[in-house]
Amino acid sequence: MLRRIRTDAAGLLIALAVAFPLYWMVLSALKPRAALEAGDPAPFTLTPTLDSFRRVLLVDGFGQYLLNSVAVAAVVVTASTFCAFCAAVALTRYRFRLRTTLLVVVLIAQMVPVEALTIPLFFLMRNMGQAVPQLGLNHLGSLMLVHTAFAVPLAIWMLHGFVAAVPKELEEAAQLDGAGSLTFVTRVLFPLVAPGVVACSIFSFIMTWNDFLFAKTFIISAQENQTLPIALLSFFKPDENDWGGIMAGSVLMTIPVLVFFLFVQRRLASGLGGAVKG
Amino acid sequence: MGIPALPLRRPGGTASGRRRLEPWMYLVPALAVLGAMLVYPLYQLVLVSFFDYRQPQVTGAEPLRFTGLANYRALLSDPQFWEVLLNTVVFAGACVLGTILLGGALAVLATRLSPWVRTALFLAALGAWATPAVTGSAVWLFLFDPTLGPVNQVLAGLGLTEFAGHSWTYTKTSAFVLVASQVLWCSFPFVMITLYAGIRAIPEEVIEAARLDGASTARIARSVMLPMLRPAMTIVTIQSIIWDFKIFTQIYIMTNGGGIAGQNLVLNVYAYQKAFASGQYGLGSAIGVITTLLLLLITLAYLRALRRQGEVL
Prior knowledge:
The complex is a heterodimer.
Chain A: H1 2-30, H2 33-37, H3 51-59, H4 62-93, H5 99-109, H6 118-131, H7 140-164, H8 168-176, H9 181-192, H10 194-209, H11 213-218, H12 228-234, H13 243-268
Helix pairs in contact in A: 1-13, 3-13, 4-7, 4-10, 5-7, 7-10, 10-13, 12-13
Chain B: H1 13-48, E1 51-52, H2 55-59, E2 65-66, H3 70-76, H4 79-112, H5 115-130, H6 133-143, H7 150-157, H8 172-200, H9 204-212, H10 217-228, H11 230-245, H12 249-254, H13 267-277, H14 281-308
Antiparallel strand pairs in B: 1-2
Subcellular location (chain B): Cell membrane
Protein name (chain B): N,N'-diacetylchitobiose transport system permease protein
Domain ABC transmembrane type-1 (chain B): 85-302
């Protein structure tokens, strides 16, 4: 009994320590600016205020960056899930040469260090911008394109398990009922794998939302097209950091990810969540 | 898509030809986007690494020159490259080891906790895991801020006055340790949750039987649980190696682009700085190729491990 209490106490202490940075983030976002600038170390505040949030959203244009991030993530989630679902259908409901090879390629593609591709992708986007400005450097289109590609391998890998789990007999039954294969895929298969689609959309979302490197590389001078991570970084100024603002921005950026994480938490242990952190 | 019902029964002919083409129709979107944004850039990366490609060549002021392995030769004879490589290996190694030890220990601890404490621990871990690298780094910089950060204030308040105004990013080791602590915080939850699931999957009877045979707890952990956890261990180890080896964001933000005089550079940040800060795109690409090859080796080890566990493709 005593031992149990001791382990529980240890576990609780560790949980508090792990949660502390997040607690401090929220707390500092709510503390008045004067207290932060005086270096108030109190682990609580009696005068919580939303001033920091108001400051970042209204003065620093954080709302625009938030919208940019949402736009990029929304397009990436839709496009990558569409590509991945189609590919998963091909890789599971058909037997053809190269099928296994393609699956191995997908698995390897998932592990390509995309960070190493910044240089060629930078030039690719520069050239693309000369043809279609919206897809070039300094535009959100460039980020949408690369992140769709980065999200597809993991999405295929996840969805192919879901699609494979739909029994073959269902397809035959649909065909006997007169459904063409496209009708079967859109009307029967897609609704059946909806949970998988949701899970893989969330992973794509998180991957895109968190991206720092490509946002930094591609959006060079177009302030209005920056995404959240870069906007947050631009709050850092030597020796006069507005910590309240930085923490409020961090809170705004963390909340969506946290919510989605709670959604997919059951799937995290299967190892798929692994590919999300970069 | 006009042909209904019939193709199922009709042998040969156009229907089976269509059947052969159909998978490729479904594959077109994914293959197009992967080809354009993953395969082609990979090819370009290798290509550029064989060229003298700097700012004058980018603007077109000077012609492109094929220089073969010159970029690689320049790298391998540059002591800074070797230092960065060593930094990367030691830093990633320490992060992987730390993550697995901490995650493993907490997974074992979690099995002995009361359910509500376990839930609290898992929720906290989930929060750490979900925090984006950028915001995690920002919070860390605030916590360890020389003058306004609570860490220094508490330490100074405890009488350790040398910590008042102490900069955690000034020396190389201290900066690396600071970044590693952030990496540890956000990556141990994956290890903990995966290993916890692994431990839970071990049948109670097996451990009971070992205990009846007189095995000690330590012996059970070593001879019964560890071998049964090997599949989960392989996955978390190799995944951790892959992430920690590729770390960019945390180093870039917390050490302000690689630390004082580049003391905290790791391969990815080094390649980025060579290319985008000093305009040596050829050299940067060569670093990218080396990083990719090193990671490919690790990935192959991962695939072999998966295959040995009988994972079906």
